[in-house]
Design a protein that fits this description.
- The structure is a homodimer of 458-residue chains.
- Chain A is 33% helix and 19% strand.
- Chain A is α+β, with helices and mostly antiparallel strands and 458 residues long.
- Chain A has a 7-stranded antiparallel sheet with strand order 15-12-14-13-17-18-16, sandwiched between helices. In chain A, strands 5-6-10-8-9 form a 5-stranded antiparallel sheet. In chain A, strands 1-2-4-3 form a 4-stranded mixed sheet, covered by helices on one side.
- Chain A is globular and about 75 Å long.
- Chain A contains 15 helices and 18 strands.
- The first copy, chain A, has 4 domains: 94 residues, Uridine Diphospho-n-acetylenolpyruvylglucosamine Reductase, domain 2 (2-Layer Sandwich), CATH 3.30.43; 122 residues, 2-Layer Sandwich (Uridine Diphospho-n-acetylenolpyruvylglucosamine Reductase, domain 3), CATH 3.30.465; 101 residues, Alpha-Beta Plaits; 83 residues, Alpha-Beta Plaits.
- Chains A, B: Keywords: FAD, Flavoprotein, Oxidoreductase.
- Chains A, B: InterPro entries: FAD-bd_oxidored_4_C, FAD-bd_PCMH, FAD-bd_PCMH-like_sf, FAD-bd_PCMH_sub2, FAD-linked_Oxase-like_C, FAD-linked_OxidoTrans_Type4, Oxid_FAD_bind_N, Vanillyl_alc_oxidase_C-sub2.
Chain lengths: 458, 458
Amino acid sequence: MSSKQVSFLENLKKVLPDESVVQDELVLSENSRDFGQLSEMPINPIAVVFPTEAQQVQQLMQLATEFGMPVISRGAGTGVSGGVHVLGEAVILNLSRMNRILDIRPDDEIAVVEPGVINHDLNVAVAKFGLMYAPDPASYKMSTLGGNVATNAGGLRCAKYGVTRESVLSLDVVLADGRLIRVGKNTFKGVAGYDLTALFTGSEGTLGVVVRAVLRLRYLPVDERDVSLLFPSLEEAVHGVQLIAKARIQPAILELIDHATIQVLDKQYSTNLSASGGAMLLARLDGYGAAREEEAIREVFADRNVVLSSAGSSEATQLIEMRRTSRGDTKDDAYRTGEDVAIPKSKMVEYVHRLQAAAKQERVDLRMISHVGDGNLHPTFSVEPDDVGDPLARLHRAVESSVRIALEMGGTITGEHGVGLIKKDWLPWEQSADVLQLQRSIKSLLDPLNILNPGKAI
Amino acid sequence: MSSKQVSFLENLKKVLPDESVVQDELVLSENSRDFGQLSEMPINPIAVVFPTEAQQVQQLMQLATEFGMPVISRGAGTGVSGGVHVLGEAVILNLSRMNRILDIRPDDEIAVVEPGVINHDLNVAVAKFGLMYAPDPASYKMSTLGGNVATNAGGLRCAKYGVTRESVLSLDVVLADGRLIRVGKNTFKGVAGYDLTALFTGSEGTLGVVVRAVLRLRYLPVDERDVSLLFPSLEEAVHGVQLIAKARIQPAILELIDHATIQVLDKQYSTNLSASGGAMLLARLDGYGAAREEEAIREVFADRNVVLSSAGSSEATQLIEMRRTSRGDTKDDAYRTGEDVAIPKSKMVEYVHRLQAAAKQERVDLRMISHVGDGNLHPTFSVEPDDVGDPLARLHRAVESSVRIALEMGGTITGEHGVGLIKKDWLPWEQSADVLQLQRSIKSLLDPLNILNPGKAI
């Protein structure tokens, strides 16, 4: 440890409670990375700070500014883009102990939370008022709301309810120099000044540290109907998505699962779905219109070659639960990469065909699930480690192709995972030099010493 | 005209077509202001520039940068906050001739538009595909989408569908120095880099000039049911809002109209609504759930002292149309001021009581309509010009009280109109010095010469 680091930690321990500054090797190692699979190995941070109140975050940032010490803030670390990986000197600011739900105001339909509250815990707490917090990333049982805000997390229900940004009304943010500001408003509408709330949302800890959030809640649906639809082919399943749209049905959840993923589900859950279909749609209809929307879906597909789950059965609901965890359970590793592009909805079939061609060319296995309701695809590429002909290079080329093709079709390199470290090289493929420069300027404005999660996101 | 101004215009006319640079007195005067009622009289701009393509906007901004010439961009000028008032040397950039719908992609559920397209025209164009553009400010038949983006416009339907920001996916923006950048994405989801799209949205022409927008469309509802509910008192009407929420009904439109406004409607439309109620709610239920939501509302109020419009009648629909134009028709003048606060939904009764007390104390007439579904209130204050005891000073104090009380209750000074000029003095009541400074720094970053709508919004 350098003398600067020693001195920084000495000063930190003077102002923070003993139990807040942890240097245990295991804790350092656990906090050195997220779920992202990076070729470069993370190193240990010099310490992990666990604040319990905003003032401690301010004290940390004041010292970090004084010492020029990089600070990486994080929650549960369930991100998959390496957004909190430690690659150089850094202290980790772990906000998981700031986990109080400060207020639930059912009549205002808002909740006020600290950043360490688990997404699912908020939903449990507000359900008794007939309310829900809508954004539901796959990690919702583990990930923190602060992390959700930092990545502008998506999930299954955003087809209908929007992503995290649409549920964030106000943020308390500790700036790089330790000042605490409050941006946004407590109301659903509000246009006073610039939209700084949206600027901080999704900025991956590079512009400030969120220490309190006012979140909009939605009505817990009075009714939910789940339908699964097995199609002979992926093409027909994608066409089915257009038919649902043309019937002006707005599902809360609309997932597409390809044949390879159906086979994985069959293996995991001892089902035999792959025998009856080439691709599957899973739709959840909710609210007062759920029953009529379910009827409408059944009418749309009545005379088509589609196997629908029977009305009232729990089959589709179970499938949605299986789907929710189908990528969460199988983490990426060096030989398996899950991607996250989004493309305009009409381009789905063409995209998949080109993706399949790219995978075939590189002899890489491909399976795919998609939040097809909003054009967000999660293809998973994998190779056998002991395969001939540099499998890792082929994997890498297939993944890059998937991103390039998405961009050629007017898509984006990341629908909901964030840029982190893993997608940083691709950002200039999507954004012009002027836009990149503008983002760097905004970063410099808010973090002139470049101590907030340096090197990430932009 | 100063020699700088002469030289600027000479240079401008060299690069732009003759018909694009207008100095006709009537046109100058028409373009000197919006619908906002400011005590200070606007002056004429030195010219009004009507570009027909983005490149002309770039050429204008290059020259403006060279000459340090302030540029105020505008659309139809239906704003009510003085956001495009001319108070000093300025050229007006009127984008109304850039009014092409560039593309409608029904399967992608997006439209690509130039900024001068009228909100309503886009809705007419996309209706044939079963789609709609959701944000519907009162001015939707006149106002431009560029103006809607500049003010992050709201409207009636945002109770369910969100404000303009939720429908803006991507923007082409000409920067102060004439560079053209594209921010955002063509997809519903996308988290690459900072949310610059949201930063430009609602920035009131102070950060750049929007020359193209990719807008998200929604499904045109398959069913719409309108219900009017007349309550004995305002208190009971507001309680009714909570009962609707507790039944987890999400109206597309939920408007509250007070007794004084009902009397105005009675006078305008020769109705006799005020005889049967003290306050009115107007609800529009839409989509597949419309019929069931209407049933649910009728159940909620079955045993209460509430007069509901009969099922299947057009009464409530007519009332919603009357309501849509009830403030648009009566523009503000020196003796009448319409306000635009938003407050947390639970505070509505308390707010109205305090508002009434403030109006009474200042002997000012008060009537009020409210987008009550999202807590956005539009009280209108008025005095008789020939009344004794400085009526304008009393009017001014009552208006200021309405804003202060909203802030005391955790509200905002502007729910949807924007800050413009008229609310600039109130912004420091809502936002801290640090937040104001941060916004000014962002402004300086994007507009170092302070030539983009200087003195507005922040």
